[in-house]
Amino acid sequence: MRKFTLLATMACALLGLPSFAQTISAEKAASASVYDFSGFSETKILELFAKVKAEGRDYPTLAEFKEIGILPSDLAFVRSHMRPRNLLSQANRVVQSTREGRDLWMNIPMDAGKGGDVGYPSGKFAADVYSMWNYTNLFGSWNHGLFTAPGCWVDAAHKHGTDIFSGIKFFDTTGGRNGSSNAWEAFILAKTPEGKFTYAEPLINVLMYFGSDGINYNWEDSGYDRPEIVAFHQELWKIAAKKGFKNYHSGIYTSQSSLSEYNAKALFGDLANGGKTHDLMLNYSGDNFIPVSTMERSVNAAKKAMETTEGLYASTWIVTMNRSWSNLSKNNDINICLWGEHGESRFMSYNKGKDAFDAQRNYQRLLERAFSGGNRNPIKRPAVSNTGNNWEQEGDKLPLQTFCGLAEFIPERSTVQGNLPFATHFNLGNGERFNYKGKKTAGSWYNMAAQDMMPTYRWLVYNAGTKNISTAIQPEFSHDDAYIGGSCLELKGDASQATDIVLYQTDLKVGAANPVVKLAVKKLAGAGQSNLSAILKVGENWVEVPYGEVSGNTWEEKKLPVNLTQGSTITAIGLRVKDGSDKYLLNVGKLEINDDSFLKPAELKDLLVEVKKETNKSMTAKLSWGVDAEAKDRKANDLLYNDEANIDHFEVLYKNGQDGKVQVVGLTSQWAAVVPDFELEDGAEPYFGVRAVSADLKQYSTVQWQKVTRDPNAPKIQEVDPYGISAMNPNCDGADIARQQRYVTAVTTTGATQNLNYHADAPVADGSQYADARNQVLKVKQGQKVTLTIKCFDTSNLSKKDGLRWCFAGGWMDLDGSKSFNPDAIDENPKEGERIFKVGKVRAGTPEFETQGISTTFEVPADARPGKSRLRIVFSDAWFAGAFLPTGLHNKGFSIDFGVEIEGTNAGRMPNDSHDQGAADEPDRIKDEKPNYPTAVNKVFDEVSRANYADGVLQFTNVQQAWVYGADGKFVVGSNGEAINTQDLVPGVYLVKMQNKGVIRSTKFVVK
């Protein structure tokens, strides 16, 4: 499928509400940064919480936060209102040789870079959407300081029952490094006049207010074993327990690779003498897991000190995956920790892709091979091997293709329990576009708070109705399309073999009448049988709910009745494919199981809209809001959980003018959102809005709207660049030196009708590492051969040589007029490829970039589409191959754009866009007078009633009540607008009468 450009447009999600609404106007040159975290100093925050504690309060006012430089609009993005969910029993885990309760600590960073807005909602599609929460007990937040881990990541972790640190304190004096812990030790050892630790309870209060779960240490210095330091950290656990903070953690990593009776109290705890001190990541041995004998001694020491090994982790550095994995099978008591690395996880830095779409697909595949094993199925794992576990592709051998997978050692986890409903759109938390019911409403986005419940199993595939392994159908996430959000589930393979894809372990009760399954699918092959059913496990049996036929090659949603009684328990959810083609391809964009349950959501309040950037064509808006309900479990900390307000998530809305058509442009579970570079119509009168979606997924809060007055002095641009951004990640390591040394000094061509002659003698002034040279236009003809030469700034004579010689380099030209770049090389894919060159070496330098320059000759294809086009040249650091993409944020590189005009008489290529076209539907029940009641009356009830009969189900549109009559005129069955299952009706002709307000219409249908 032709993949379209990653626009730097809409992101994440937002919301707003009743008591008051406010807009903060941007100055003419609005802030380039969406967030301001300069006030987030852990010591200032702790001092503030200590101050208010002395005054008898557990949390400050917003005014007091402002006094230390923290604004409410930034605070809202750090806080999480997602309650940590409880786990289901692991008794039925698929790998029975694992130990129930054995934990995995992923002590890795999030996204790419350090601190700042790393991992926060943005418009960056090519970002880290970690998704293997189903095996992760604890997440390290390695690249953020204390109390600054993004709340959206906390939301995603908590949804899946994973605890997540608020950030890390990093001390390292090894090798002469200047990372002493002295200042921190002095700070935390302060005492009150009563002799208590000044900052112990305030630290716990900070975490309980923010919603994150603890503090993480890299303590490669002395001092951690000082008795008073140990006492401070033991006091944290005691205070947390007293306050009911059950998922509190303090994690520590030191130079110690074993636990003994001599260091147990300082590193782990002493049940008889102060209690728990830390969760302990034992240092690796020669970068590897410690020997089995060391594991045994450490386990024995832990049991002696604390009567448990909970919180004791053997670790390894995942710079390579050739580690002593077999050791982990020899001691089931010890837990497992993976570390790597400081500013970007090894899963991200080793991952590659030809463009953002390819990189995102490969990232999920890499995670799946690492966790579920090289076959991406936890019951079809390769054998445990300490060698041959390749991070990067080696010939035909895919990355980690022969790795046994962490599922060999760690049981899967699920939190899907309680009463219905359950729903997923298979959103990973990002997208090249935001879709609502299959149609685009906004551009590129990233928000982990929009990530759906990830499947318990990645992927558990059986022959239908059995537990025999099947390879007929391969499920995987895809960003190529989406129903709601930015991704979907793709099912591909041989559908002639009946196959079950078991997605979720559950403990769901049908708590009300009329259970239904809602499925949305898209079959690119067009009309015909979907060959798909939802399957629900009740007792020992699977209940199959067929989708039936699709009418075309666009997204279609059906509501299907389920033959389940109230009180039934669903223990697993999956999909079944059967009776189809051996070249089956189907996208699934919604899977929901619901019933007639009713929960009224709370209303919203205090919507704040801050305009961060504005042009005549676009606007970046930053929103935050409140919820009009009272906190319960953490009332003392002013933390209201979403479920206490009967809220599942929030919809972000937009309309042009007071009476404009309403669009859903984002989703989030946070109380804040960013809408980046949102494209506006000419003369638009923008209104941003938000509403809460009930936990029953059927009711809504009242929409809160805020009009944003346009700035007549905003910069004027001709268009929002359709090719998307290409710039340096401002948070990457080495960004400052890159801004000084990594730039292109010359780009020239020969052989073209009009050649390029670009020269520069200094870096780009704005620090973006992007040069806009579109005013220089390369004019070429179809079939013309052109030689392109690029020279980079030469660092040969500098003491620190950190120029573009340490990068990959590549160039792409739009050859089909799609306003995007197909990532394939022209010579490898002549019909669609648009990459004209790629040079550089993995994790190595290419000095010739600077000393001689790059020269490449390419031929403009004879079918290149005539018209205006674009040439983009990108450099990106050779140690981070995943960031080398035609669109997005590169790592310590440089990019430059040139205008192109293609001439010729051939018709030229045509772009292929398989996305649904046209304007998106307005959101459900947006016209209801009372959207928070199941009986809400729609203002547009004058629409024509319709009935559709297919696959034994009679479905209604614009119907309040319906009555079905037999051929003899006798009443058979009735409905209040819900679908009617006709499986009990005898074959024959039936009449259905449908009432919509004061109008009744009739139609006939035939049961065969």
Task: Give structural notes.
This protein has 1008 residues and is mainly β. 12% of the residues lie in helices and 32% in strands. It is built from 14 helices and 56 strands. A hairpin with a 2-residue loop joins strand 26 (532-538) and strand 27. Helix 1 (42-54) packs across helix 6 (200-210). The longest helix is centred in the middle third of the chain and has 17 residues, at 356-372. The protein is globular, with a radius of gyration of 29 Å. The model is unreliable at 1-31 and 935-942 (pLDDT under 50).
Keywords, please?
1008 residues, mainly beta, 9-stranded parallel sheet, 14 helices, 32% strand, disordered N terminus
What's the arrangement of strands in the largest beta sheet? 4-3-2-12-11-10-7-6-5
- The backbone outline, from C-alpha atoms, is globular
Q: What radius of gyration results from the CA coordinates? A: 29 Å
Q: What's the count of strands? A: 56
Count every helix, treating DSSP H or I runs of 4 or more residues as helices.
14
For the terminal residues, how far apart are their CA atoms?
39 Å
Report the structural category.
Answer: mainly beta
Largest sheet: 9 strands, parallel
Strand content: 25-35%
Helix content: 10-25%
Overall pLDDT metric: 93
Low-pLDDT residue intervals, each spanning 5 or more residues: 1-31, 935-942
Please give the structural blueprint:
Elements (H helix, E strand, L loop, with lengths): L20 E4 L17 H13 L7 H6 L4 H7 L25 E4 L30 E2 L11 H9 L3 E2 L3 E5 L9 H7 L11 H11 L3 E7 L6 H16 L6 E5 L10 H4 L1 E2 L4 E2 L2 E4 L9 H15 L5 E6 L8 H4 L5 E5 L6 H4 L6 H17 L43 E4 L2 E3 L5 E2 L2 E3 L2 E4 L2 E2 L13 E4 L9 E6 L5 E2 L2 E6 L5 E11 L6 E7 L5 E2 L2 E7 L2 E6 L2 E2 L5 E6 L7 E9 L6 E11 L9 E11 L3 E10 L19 E10 L6 E6 L3 E8 L6 E9 L9 E4 L18 E3 L6 H7 L2 E7 L6 E3 L10 E12 L3 E8 L14 E7 L21 E5 L8 H4 L2 E6 L7 E11 L10 E3 L3 E10 L42 E5 L2 E5 L3 E5 L5 E5 L4 E2 L6 E9 L2 E9 L1
Parallel strand pairs: 1-32, 2-3, 2-12, 3-4, 5-6, 6-7, 7-10, 10-11, 11-12, 13-23, 39-48, 42-49
Antiparallel strand pairs: 8-9, 14-31, 15-18, 16-17, 16-21, 19-23, 20-22, 22-31, 23-30, 24-29, 24-31, 25-28, 26-27, 26-30, 32-33, 33-36, 34-35, 34-37, 37-38, 40-41, 40-43, 43-46, 44-45, 44-47, 47-49, 50-51, 51-54, 52-53, 52-55, 55-56
Helix pairs in contact: 1-6, 6-7
